[in-house]
Amino acid sequence: MIPVDNHLHTRLCGHAAGEIDEYLDVAARRGIKEVGFCDHLPLYFLPPDKTIPGYAMDESDLPDYISMIKNQALQAPLEVKMGIEADFVPGHEDKLENILASHRFDFITGAVHFIDGWGFDNPAELAEYAVRDIDTVYRQYFALIQQAALTGFFDIMAHPDLVKKFNFRPARDLRPLYEETARVFKNAGVCVEVNTAGLRYPVKEIYPGPELLEVFFKHGLPVTLGSDAHRPEDVGAGLPEAIELIKNIGYREVATFSGRQIRFVNI
Ligand code: ZN
Ligand code: FE
Ligand code: FE
Ligand code: ZN
Hints:
The chain has 267 residues and is of the alpha/beta class. 31% of the residues lie in helices and 20% in strands. One zinc ion binds at residues 9, 13, 15, 40, 230.
């Protein structure tokens, strides 16, 4: 039984396929009890005349996103929650706070996909790894997710070790960075997303990997589950493996969110 998939995209972001009802059909067929849509928030941190094509919905589409999901939720055979995946880019906190406050979400998922303007998880920007020091990249990435958690804007931290996506790994021991991140997350009161998209990318590993997840467990951080589906057939993908992984580490429940309040479901 899969209690929840809290990370589904929609075609509004420009790089996902399928209709919302198709995502819900697959979820129902796979016995998923609850889903959370979590599409990319408009790129609030760019100047008004700038955009990254096919990266996120336009600001003018945000009300449509919300009404489309509300409408589908009424007829769906399962619980449907309204989430959003919000990039954290330092220096634009006021804009982010405003846009998040103007809508009622069940949960807000914070994500870091940019290190000083470099879209490090974007295949189109892969060449940049050749000119960066990978130890520094990891340090910058983890500093950003810590800073994101401490803003208090986010209920969930998305794919916590996304920086490993293309399987570039630093030589040094990451344990101290993991410990520090877990302490900061705990102080910030965030939930951690166990995201299976990594299984579909070169790293071929769930985010977070077992070592980081163990550190999160030791620090008492709650977890939720997300497939990060960008097409209906990926709804719930890898979640049985994710549940197996978190159970082996010691978790007995996963978090779900309603109106920004956390609840726990046994696994
Ligand atoms: Zn996406
Ligand atoms: Fe993401
Ligand atoms: Fe996503
Ligand atoms: Zn994502």
